[in-house]
Amino acid sequence: MDQSVPGRAVVIGAGIAGLVAARVLSERVDEVVIVERDAIDDDTTTRPGVPQAMHVHLLLQRGYCELTCLFPGLDGRLAVAGAPALDLLRDGVWITRAGEAPRVPSRLRTRSASRGLYESVIRDLTLERPNVKLLDGHDAVALVGDAAAVRGVALRRRLSRTSGTAPTGTTPDHHATAAGEPHGETSQIDAWLVVDASGRASKAPAHLAAIGAPVPAESVIDASLRYATRLYRLPAVPRDWKVLLVRDRPPAGTRGGVVSEIEGGRWVVTLGGAGEDQPPTDDDGFVAFARDLVSPRLFDAIRDAEVLSPIHGWARTANRWRHAERIRAWPAGFTLFGDSLCALNPVYGQGMSVAAMEGGVLGRWLDASAVGRDRRSATPPATGPLIDALSRTARLPWFLATGEDARIEGVTGVDRASPLEVLGRRYIDEVVLDAARDPHTLRRFTEVSNLVRPPIALFDPLVVARVAAGVVGRRLGRTRRPGRGRA
pLDDT for 255-268, tens place per residue? Predict the structure, then answer.
């Protein structure tokens, strides 16, 4: 086949990133088909394709703003489902080795919910668009096209139950799959644009190689951070917080934990650590790990709590960037999106927010005059400029996540730090120390980590002056060095 279907876009993956892409596309093309390997029911909250769904997913302020703008009604539906509203600095207790940060009102607002609730509500809002169809229970097994242009996707239906129905215009083929695999119906769906939002396990490199297209080089930075999670029901006692985070900072230590209230009166507790200091997944080990954090506050919170779930461990935390932006001859009609392009260490909670930010990038690219004119053309659009723009969006989150991971002993994939990088890390350490004392520095630091402001905001005159005063004070012996956080 040598032509795509004008006005149709295919999105591979029905996670948050795929739903964001589908929502943006639905306003600009005639038909959007989401292809998802898992079978999805109305009550699907966890699924095999999102094995990390049990862990804490605190939506950053930037992501909350982007998603609520993109999905009108999202905040109201989350509220009805019982997701607590958060002022991150008023309702959160943030403890580091430097102590407990001030509790102050802020404009940093979000909602605390399980990953399953976020996804199910966003999926419902997406599928309410009349031109969006979900084809679940199908694997995307190949790209259709060549090195110059992608014009569709080859699919294979999974033998497990599927509620999806193939869109009109697909071509069924009932031959068997490769030897050793179960026999399933295969088909082909043609499209003007294919968006791979299938996550960090994306098969895009193999699919690109199969059509003779260049395969992106990868940067992988892995600090071997691991975490473990359990759901609790906390005792019914008065408390003035909804999120509690206790965290050491490398190189002094990597151990940390968070308790976050979610829907249904439940509390999700995630513990994390790196190298050989990783949270156990047995009952006694989990509790002992919590007891030995830099502050006892988290252990005190769960000590008499009711256990609601087994302990779930997770180990796939490497930062991985597929450098599609370095390929000048990128095939038209195809793009990577979300974690398929740049997957970040989930410990820092950036994934959903970056996907939401990329939705804005996709919309602006689709609205560009040249692309807009081609939307109903049978010629796939040149997606190189889109790849470039998405990569620029991922650059800051990548810098924040990998910069922190690079401080951990044994991290792989990073070059030796330059003198400037060493100086920058020392400055950030001083900012963190001051944030435990000063509301202005705390706000600036939290705004940067929530992707609301760029890192240059940490160099505003007031922050620099306070950091300098703290350094001088310690050198003169006027300020006690940070120790164990307050109980």
Answer: 999 999 999 999 99
What distances in angstroms separate CA 154 from CA 9, 173, 202, 430, one per listed residue?
14, 10, 15, 53
In 3-state terms, the chain is what percent helix, strand and coil (to 5)? 35, 25, 40
Residue with tokens 């006692």: 237
What tokens does 148 get? 């110059």
Average pLDDT over the chain, rounded to an integer: 89
Token pair, residue 221, equals: 């930075």
Region(s) of the chain under CATH 3.50.50.60 = 8-47+122-219+318-401
Question: 382: closest CA among 143, 188, 192?
Answer: 192
Helix (H, G, I), strand (E, B), or coil: what is residue 177?
Answer: coil
- Per DSSP, helices labelled H in 322-460 are 351-367, 369-374, 384-405, 419-435, 439-449
Q: How much is the pLDDT for 202?
A: 97
Contact 256, 298 (CB under 8 A): no
What is the C-alpha to C-alpha distance for residues 437 and 475, in angstroms, rounded to an integer? 18
Token pair 């509203």: residue: 85
Beta-carbon contacts of 79 under 8 Å, excluding residues fewer than 6 positions away, are: 85, 111
Kindly report the pTM of this predicted structure: 0.90
Name the H helices within 101-165. Answer: 115-127
Q: Is 431 in contact with 423 (CB distance < 8 Å)?
A: no
**Do the beta carbons of residue 422 and residue 415 sit within 8 Å?**
no
Architecture of domain 8-47+122-219+318-401: 3-Layer(bba) Sandwich (3.50)
| CATH class assigned to 61-113+224-314 | alpha beta
pLDDT of 2 > 80? The answer is: no
Helices 419-435 and 461-475 cross at an angle (nearest 10°) of 90
Q: Where in the chain is the domain with CATH 3.30.9.100?
A: 61-113+224-314
Instruction: Tell me the C-alpha distance between 460 and 102, whole Å.
Output: 20
pLDDT digits (tens, 9 = 90+) for 403-413: 999 989 899 99
Query: What is the rounded (10 degree) CA torsion for 473, 478, 481, 485?
Result: -110
Predicted confidence (pLDDT) at residue 251 exceeds the cutoff of 70: yes
Q: Average pLDDT for residues 379-402, to the nearest whole number? A: 96
pLDDT tens digits, 160-216 = 544 444 444 444 333 323 333 444 788 999 999 999 999 999 999 999 999 999 999
Compute the Cα dihedral for 16, 61, 321, 314 and give only its sign.
Answer: negative
